[in-house]
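Notes from the 1:1 (GR / supervisor)

We went over the backlog. Supervisor wanted to see one worked example end to end before approving the batch request, so GR pasted a single chain during the call. The sequence is below; no edits were made to it. Supervisor asked that the structure be written out right there so they could see what the output format looks like.
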Amino acid sequence: MKIAAAQIKPIKGDINANIENHKTLINLAINNNVDLIIFPELSITGYEPELAEQLSVHYEDPVLDIFQKMAEENNITIIVGMPTKADDKLLISSIIFQPEKKRDIYSKRHLFPTETGVFSRRESFCQLNVLQNKISLAICYDLSDPNHSQQAYQAGSNVYAASVLNSVNGIDNDLIKLSDIAKKYHMHVLMANFTGESGGYECAGKSSAWNNNGSLLGELNRENEGLLILNTENNQIEKIYIP
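Structure output shown during the call:
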């Protein structure tokens, strides 16, 4: 299986412009025979808690229909980030588009302390099946709770895929945590992060992949948008940057 972490520079609150940027990276993934592409936390809006309420949608909103169309036509699984509303609660969500399947959603289980006054948490778990691989999804602070990755392991996952916003000040600790998860549970681990600025943070880039022994296979740079593609069969990495 080829799985790609998409590293993007979000445009604050501009859903349409960000969707167009997502389409560019998805097409790049399609041209490189990727089976699954994952974007950073809240990728469609940028990480903007103060705007999340007004930008939020129901996860089945037609504004995101293009991703289901691209998934169907190109046999690719697409995971994007969006603030969603459910039962009058505001959630940080990953919305999942798979060919010939109904649109699905995973909402963040563990909120960073600064998020608790804005968002609600969901006691949820998400495992996808793609080409005989079991992929568990995490959103940023989820990976800080050992129970989250342990549940992924107990469910038989062989890939742990994290959508994050990580700043230049915070990324080193999370890189260690993700490497430890890969080593402890013998899972491939992939992390998709922003570059540029979002939510007042200077984003660190460095979208990364680890093999199932915890060794870093590769990471993108800090500045550029692009794809980090992991082939789980042979641990080969491809780095593709957008000029």
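Supervisor's comment: Residues 129 and 135 are 6 Å apart (CA to CA).
Batch request approved.
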